[in-house]
Amino acid sequence: MMRCAALSLFLTLLLPLPVAAQAADGDWQLASLRDGIEVHVRQRPDSALKAFRGVTRFQLDDPYTLVAALNDYPHYPRWLHYVDAAEEFQRSSPLERQLRLVVRLPWPLQHREAILRATVTQEQPPPLARVTVALESDNSLYPAQSGFVRFPMMRGVLTLQLLGAQQVEMTYQLELDPGGRVPSWLANLALANAPYYTLLRLQRTLSRPEYADAGADIPYLQLRSAPEPP
Q: According to the UniProt entry, where is the signal peptide (predicted)?
């Protein structure tokens, strides 16, 4: 009990400073704003667990830089909060992929694994292109691994919205069922920081040289307008 209480205190200290709650896109409520990153929270009608969403803007000379980072699964632990390993184990097409994420949670929570379908959709053309990566758990895709608890449910959305003037708005939304015996209040505390730290670390990651000039390797998305004919 003392260790669980200590963990609760630790997670509470990590929570972002609250701001005045206000309506944000329907029933989303603004929970924090720091470093240019908005974190919104929404109570799920079917669960005591909450959904969380982070929104920020990146200044990028090349929007394909962001796509290249999202395609670099072995290096997801650099920026995706709580994720210790990631792999793409199957690909139906560049727009349909299957992923496995290893999530290492603070003691006393047992480590988790998530088996996900990733579906990429381009919803708007350039110059204001919009791309959505929808993540949905499907545990039938991959055999269970010993030492991990499977997430019974995980849903996430990554959205890239080009705004012009080399600005990209990035949205990261997450809701899940952690499985096992995890109190909902503890799961909500642990999840509350995921959007903030994910977007903060992703912004720092985008400056890495391996993600520069990536457009030629990503022909399935059109993020730049075609050049004017001579």
A: 1-23
